[in-house]
């Protein structure tokens, strides 16, 4: 059994939607980043890579490379799963946390879980998603950005 932890943060900018877990959520701001800035999937990718002992998201998908500009993080997640599989591991479970004052995540939780499960070809009950606020504290509390954490466990492929 292997465990990996991922953390990602993206600033908010003027926009019309945020993308979390591959789901477009209407909002008065967007996340700022080189790719689609999906903070949740970026945390998940780092957790997967960490558990597999395969580095981090920046090593595999460098933001300086033009081919990753505006790319869907779901594509990066699928590529990450191939890396994990190549290292001889399969996913055991995923636990995710979004830290944001806005937008409210609860109306989109099932869709986010479904999108991730579909991308990774997992059962939905292998994925847990939580959302919390920062109670007005720090950059997330001031609505300047969104943070996400992910923890995953991998097991040896049989």
Description of the molecule:
The protein contains 5 helices and 7 strands. It has 158 residues and is an alpha+beta fold. It has one domain (2-156): 2-C-methyl-D-erythritol 2,4-cyclodiphosphate synthase (60s Ribosomal Protein L30, Chain: A), CATH 3.30.1330. The strands form 2 sheets. A 5-stranded mixed β-sheet has the order 4-1-7-5-6. The protein is globular. It starts with a strand and ends with a strand. The mean pLDDT is 96.
- Beta-strand fraction estimate: 25-35%
By CATH, the superfamily comes out as 2-C-methyl-D-erythritol 2,4-cyclodiphosphate synthase
CATH topology description: 60s Ribosomal Protein L30, Chain: A
Number of discrete helical segments: 5
- What's the alpha carbon Rg, rounded to whole Å? 15 Å
Compute the number of strand runs: 7
- The CATH architecture would be 2-Layer Sandwich
Portion in helices: 25-40%
Tally of discrete structural domains = 1
Shape: globular
CATH class descriptor name: Alpha Beta
Profile the largest sheet: 5 strands, mixed
